[in-house]
Amino acid sequence: MKLVLFGATGMVGTRIATEASARGHQVTAVSRSGQSPIPGVTATAADASDPAKVAELAAGADAVASACVPPRDGSDPREPFLAINRALVEGVRQAGVRRLMIVGGAGSLEIAPGQAAFDQPGFPEAYLQEALAHRDVLAYYRALDDESVDWTYISPAAEIRPGERTGTFRIGGDRMLTDDHGNSRISAEDYAIAFVDELEKDAHPRARMSVAY
User: Fold this and answer.
1) Spatial separation of the C-alpha atoms in residues 58 and 143, rounded to whole Å
2) Where does the NAD(P)-binding domain start and stop, copy by copy (predicted)?
3) Distance CA 108, CA 65 (A)
4) DSSP string covering 20-88
5) Beta strand 115-116 pairing with 110-112
6) Averaged over 113-127, what is the pLDDT?
7) How confident is the model at residue 36, as a pLDDT?
8) Model pLDDT for residues 154-181, shown as the tens digit of each residue
9) Over pLDDT 90: what percentage of the chain?
10) In this predicted model, what pLDDT tens digit does every residue of 4-22 receive, in sequence order?
11) Nearest by Cα to 3 from 127, 100, 78, 143
12) Percent of the chain topping pLDDT 70
């Protein structure tokens, strides 16, 4: 499979590129720097907010994936992040690529019906704007009014960080998955396994799924 991955140099993006390449997929790692430390991965520089460039890189691909994150410069990230995702959709449409996979956020996962994690007392203020940006992006995908884009939005657990690649985790939907102690965790390595599994199987078309231990 030929995969074009935007945001490929971040914590999650590098692990998705590594996992996909290790399974024999042809990966083009796209970032602003145009660099990738992963052997066997083709690196190129581009801006995901440019739909023409997205279309150019996506031409002939089987799937496009985004591990892009909202701006973290202190400005309101919601509209810029939404603009990136609009450009991705426009670009894949121009390229004729149906499959689009999105690294999502955890803040919009429900801890009870109708109660998102970011609505709860004690949700870290430092992460609130980013969580709202991810919420807006998920709403945008859910509102797409045609089926030309076969998207999947994959939310990690509340805590995701570099760790062990175990291959053992659970898959859920809109509800936040927790362990017996109430913790919601996943390693970036295991998240990448779930992401590439979904890339290969397309088991959650036009839907949000979640991954946690």
Assistant:
1) 23
2) 7-199
3) 20
4) HHHTT-EEEEEESS----STT-EEEE--TT-HHHHHHHHTT-SEEEE------SSS--HHHHHHHHHHH
5) antiparallel
6) 93
7) 84
8) 999 999 999 999 999 999 999 999 999 9
9) 91
10) 999 999 999 999 999 999 9
11) 100
12) 100
77: left (phi over 0), alpha (psi -120 to 50) or beta: alpha
Global confidence as pTM: 0.96
What are the backbone dihedrals phi and psi of residue 64, each rounded to the nearest 5 degrees, phi first?
Answer: -120, 140
Q: Which among 117, 101, 18 is positioned nearest to 61, based on CA atoms?
A: 101
The predicted model gives 176-195 an average pLDDT of 97
CB atoms within 10 A of CB 72: 10
Give the C-alpha separation, 159 to 195, whole Å: 16
The two structure tokens encoding residue 181: 């102690």
Q: Decide if 173 contacts 207 (C-beta within 8 A).
A: yes
User: 211 with 171: CB under 8 angstroms?
Assistant: yes
The H-or-E segment that residue 190 falls in is helix 188-201
Cα dist from 14 to 21, 30, 38, 189, whole Å? 10, 11, 8, 10
The predicted structure's pLDDT at residue 154: 98
* Tokens, residue 24: 């024999």
What pLDDT, on a 0 to 100 scale, did the predictor assign at position 37?
A: 81
Q: Helices 188-201 and 11-22 meet at what angle, rounded to 10?
A: 50
